[in-house]
Amino acid sequence: MTYGTSANPVRAQASWVERSLAAVWHPCTQMQSHPELPMLAVARADGPWLTDFDGARYFDAISSWWVCLLGHRHPAVVQALRDQLDRLDHVMLAGVTHQPVIELSERLSALTGNVLGHAFFGSDGASAIEIAIKMSAHAWQHRGHRDKQSFVCMAGSYHGETLGALGVTDLPGFRRPYEGLVRPAHVVPSADARQARPGDQACDVALRAVRHLESLLEDRADSIAAIVTEPLVQGAGGMVFYDAEYLRQVRALCDRHSVHWIADEIAVGCGRTGSFFACEQSGVWPDLLCLSKGMTGGFLPLSVVLARDEIYRLFLGDSASSAFLHSHSYTGNPLACSAAVAVLDVLQKDDVLSANRLRAARLGALLRQFSEHPRVRHFRHIGMIWAWEIAGAQPGFAQQVFRIALKHELLLRPIGNTVYLMPPYLLSDADIDALGNSVVAVMNEVLA
Q1: Are the CB atoms for 226 and 239 separated by under 8 Å?
Q2: Are 177 and 217 members of one domain?
Q3: 299 in the same domain as 395
Q4: Which one of 10, 19, 273, 337 is separated from 189 by 20 to 30 angstroms, measured CA to CA?
Q5: Which parts of the chain register pLDDT below 50?
Q6: Burial class (CB in 10 A: 0-12, 13-18, 19+), 219
Q7: pLDDT at residue 331 in the model
Q8: Are residues 293 and 267 in contact, defined by beta-carbon separation less than 8 angstroms?
Q9: Could you read off the pLDDT of 38-49 as tens digits, one per residue?
Q10: Which of 29, 4, 28, 27 is nearest to 16 (CA)?
Q11: Which helix (H) or strand (E) holds 57?
């Protein structure tokens, strides 16, 4: 079947939507809201642009759930996958290895200054969290601390939707239906910079928030394995920004009380906050670091947990029972690893993160056209993330913005009353202007 050749192209697009609604159960979607709420049927994509079956284009302003870092179908990654297909498609990673997984592991470790020297691969972000929390609890068992089986998360945190990950997620909409299945974590206040009092800096909010963690660890460290944080930005909780001082305090408290720190860089890693790892901006490293989403540039699912040597060595022994017995069928898939290596090549050879500072400045200048509107609250920016709230938003606000954005050739997906942008990195000046002008047009319509 060929795109766009129907005698009735509008009917061609509608047909794909109808077929999807009949056969596909879409994630994070109230299916009954369709077809009144438009659904975008995508035929192809190039760079930041999605094209539907009618030939209409839409700017992917959220990198398709934050994964398409370089835009869609970047030629270097496409070529890497073609080359890899000619060599090796897949092989299990138990007792077998291959070049792409070795190269990727070595390069990721090098990016941490070899502090996190061992890479354990999974399939997606939630599976990385599952791996990390199991690894932490199991490591404490190896050290004779079998009671250290509980975890800590920040208020409003999101770490995935599998049962273990839900245990360290503090978003009721995701967690409440499964409360009976989930082992809940201790929840400490967020260091949300929006909570600043008059005269405060974001650092002051962080220092106040961390006192709650300090008190909890003083009382319960004997039963706590780890704290899980999203460094600098809590994503699905509403793009909550906080100061890097919180992470420095977390590191110090974890060291003092013998608790692991798990950094969930699934959304904020790979340069999204301006440094390859968000943790870099704090000057301290976690014990375990989870990475996924943009790791392969949106081509294939892949995740990794990077571990310190002292944790890795606890699992060495004479019997299989002392090993970390966790696996995924597609662990370290050669194609996915090749895509990830190609993404690293592009980021490093083209000095993408430095260039992003110029891109961010250009886009930020355009967004200032509405950022001072009295209904726009807490306009904020870090790296290639922008977010703001709309005061007085009514129920259905997110769907309203989604619908209006499609009219302006833009894909947006607000979180509650928080509108955010996480666009692909490789944007030309024309792309940036198109994005900025479309967002301004959408916000003008929403605010009117």
Answers
A1: no
A2: yes
A3: no
A4: 273
A5: 1-7
A6: exposed
A7: 96
A8: yes
A9: 999 999 999 999
A10: 4
A11: strand 57-60
The CATH number covering residue 109 comes to: 3.40.640.10
Where is the domain boundary, 349, 366, 381? 349
Q: How far is CA 430 from CA 47, 55, 387, in A?
A: 12, 20, 22
Which DSSP string corresponds to 248-314?
Answer: HHHHHHHHHHT-EEEEE-TTTTTTTTSSSSGGGGGT---SEEEE-GGGGTTSS--EEEEE-HHHHHH
Query: Could you tell me if 24 and 16 are in contact, meaning their C-beta atoms sit under 8 angstroms apart?
Result: no
Position 1 in a domain: no
Task: Report pLDDT for 4.
Answer: 43
Structural domain contains residue 344: yes
Distance CA 112, CA 115 (A): 6
Last residue of one domain, picked from the residues 315, 333, 349: 349
Q: Is 258 left (phi over 0), alpha (psi -120 to 50) or beta?
A: left
Pairing of strands 376-382, 385-390: antiparallel
Cα-to-chain-centroid distance, residue 402: 20
pLDDT of residue 10: 53
What's the token pair of residue 70? 């370089």
Dihedral sign, Cα of residue 113, residue 115, residue 118, residue 124: negative
How many CA atoms does the CB half-sphere of 384 hold within 13 Å?
33
CA angle 356, 358, 364 (to 5 degrees): 95
Quote the pTM value: 0.96
Asked if residue 140 is part of any domain, the answer here is yes
Task: Name the phi and psi angles at 330, rounded to 5.
Answer: -105, 25
3-class secondary structure, 135: helix
pLDDT digits (tens, 9 = 90+) for 370-414: 999 999 999 999 999 999 999 999 999 999 999 999 999 999 999
Tally Cβ neighbours within 10 Å of residue 329.
Answer: 9
Domain residues for the domain of 408 are 9-73+351-447
Q: How many domains does the chain have?
A: 2
Which run of H or of E encompasses 363? helix 352-371
Phi-psi region of 286 (alpha: psi -120 to 50; beta: other; left: phi over 0): beta
